[in-house]
From TrEMBL:
Residues 127-162 are annotated as: Disordered. This is Uncharacterized protein. Residues 152-162 have a biased composition (Low complexity). It comes from Zoogloea dura.
Length: 162
């Protein structure tokens, strides 16, 4: 897949997160992209990337949602856990540029309007303030961790009585 953009890598990562357990709806992919820190701003670019992924055999429509094919999942595997989003996007983009599909697959119909509807639905859900399962965990304050000390026991030290 020779012409790759950052949006291609962001779409792959967002779909990987959103469709871990089951095929994800388009709104869930948009929410995962927002959690990654690369929100969907242009429905046209994301729809074009989505169609390109389907043509190259990386995304399929399944069970009312979308999921990555095994080839698509392989491109997102074994990324460094401590890398930030921009590093992960860079690594996935490199893998995408080296990816050569075995054969062309039928495209999944995707329009700009579908992405814009998903963006609007995600914006409405974000304003409601409900529980979002894709929210990142809060960072632990390092200063608070240092104050506890690694060897401190809650009920004092073990003493041997002899």
């Amino acid at each position: 897949m020779y012409p790759t953009n950052d949006i291609d890598a962001q779409l792959l990562l967002a779909t990987l997160i959103a469709s871990k357990r089951r095929p994800a709806e388009l709104v869930e992919i948009v929410a995962a992209a927002d959690v990654l820190g690369c929100p969907v701003t242009s429905g046209n670019l994301w729809a074009e990337s989505f169609r390109r992924f389907a043509t190259h055999g990386l995304i399929v429509a399944a069970e009312g949602g979308y999921a990555l094919t095994p080839a698509g999942q392989a491109l997102g595997e074994k990324l460094p856990k401590k890398a930030d989003t921009s590093e992960r996007v860079f690594l996935v983009r490199e893998r995408l540029s080296a990816y050569m599909p075995a054969e062309k697959s039928p495209s999944v119909p995707m329009s700009t309007e579908q992405f814009e509807e998903a963006m609007a639905a995600h914006a409405v859900a974000a304003k409601q303030g409900g529980k979002n399962l894709l929210m990142p965990k809060p960072k632990v304050d390092e200063d608070a961790q240092r104050g506890r000390g690694p060897g401190r026991r809650p009920f004092g030290a073990n003493r041997r009585r002899g």
